[in-house]
UniProtKB/TrEMBL annotation:
Catalysed conversion reaction: aldehydo-D-ribose 5-phosphate = D-ribulose 5-phosphate
Record carries keyword Isomerase: yes
Source species: Flavobacterium hungaricum
InterPro entries: NagB/RpiA_transferase-like, Ribose5P_isomerase_typA_subgr, Ribose5P_isomerase_type_A
Keyword Isomerase: yes
Keywords tagged on the record: Isomerase
Domain of life: Bacteria
Protein name as annotated: Ribose-5-phosphate isomerase A
């Protein structure tokens, strides 16, 4: 299977939902980058789009394509966001954060009227959890959070870059937490929300309306 082709197909399908004058959320990760490139083509063809980026990397790619990137605090809602995921189920439960942008991705998703997730077919799972759950933590609290994750049977590892802790665009750390297969993602999300110091966790629940999955040389659209 050609997962890069599947990512491209999903991105091209998702961008069809974008209309001129929309405020568009730009996701982060290799799949979302295909969508940003497609949005760049719309702009080149005269579409008027204002974009909110979920990472500095997405913002830089968008700017290089002459997409007008604006401050998220200048808008009170976003029409369409196109973002990727690390795992998703047919019940629209998903794990995000592999790309390290989960805090901004979650705020953007919360502000978005139509959140479209695009993914290659390797991301679809029956049960979440093969992929560790990224947890974005304020550095002041990271050892405390590690201990609290252990209390709820999560084995946390601080994400490293070279030989120091990876820093998100927010200046936070990421702990990748292994809970094994997650039988009740909603219950786990509630527990993670209770831990002081957690800025965001990668269980995205109730934030997505449409998933477009590339499958060989076509796409499959899941609608809530
Ligand atoms: O960080 C994220 O949630 C991204 O969407 C990401 O994990 C998906 O990355 P990929 O499109 O490169 O697989």
């Amino acid at each position: 299977k050609d997962f890069e082709k599947e990512k491209m197909l999903a991105a091209q399908e998702a961008v069809k939902f974008i209309e001129s004058d929309m405020i568009v959320g730009l996701g982060t990760g290799s799949t979302a980058f295909y969508a940003i490139n497609e949005i760049g083509k719309l702009v080149k063809n005269g579409f008027k789009i204002k974009a909110v980026a979920t990472s500095n990397e997405s913002a830089a790619l968008a700017a290089s394509l002459n997409i007008d990137v604006i401050d998220i605090n200048a808008v009170d809602s976003i029409d369409i966001t196109i973002d990727g995921a690390d795992e998703f189920t047919s019940e629209f439960l998903m794990i995000k954060g592999g790309g390290g942008a989960l805090f901004r991705e979650k705020v953007v998703a919360a502000m978005t009227k139509k959140e479209i997730i695009i993914a290659d077919s390797s991301k679809k799972v029956a049960v979440l959890g093969k992929f560790k759950v990224p947890v974005e933590v304020v550095p002041f609290a990271y050892q405390y959070v590690l201990r609290q994750l252990a209390v709820i049977n999560g084995k946390g590892t601080v994400r490293m870059k070279n030989d120091t802790q990876y820093l998100t665009d927010q200046g936070n750390f990421i702990i990748d937490a292994d809970f094994g297969l997650i039988s009740d993602p909603k219950a786990l999300a509630a527990k993670l929300n209770e831990i002081e110091g957690v800025a965001a966790h990668g269980l995205f629940i109730g934030l997505t309306h449409t998933i477009i999955m590339g499958e060989r040389d076509t796409t499959i659209i899941f609608k809530k």
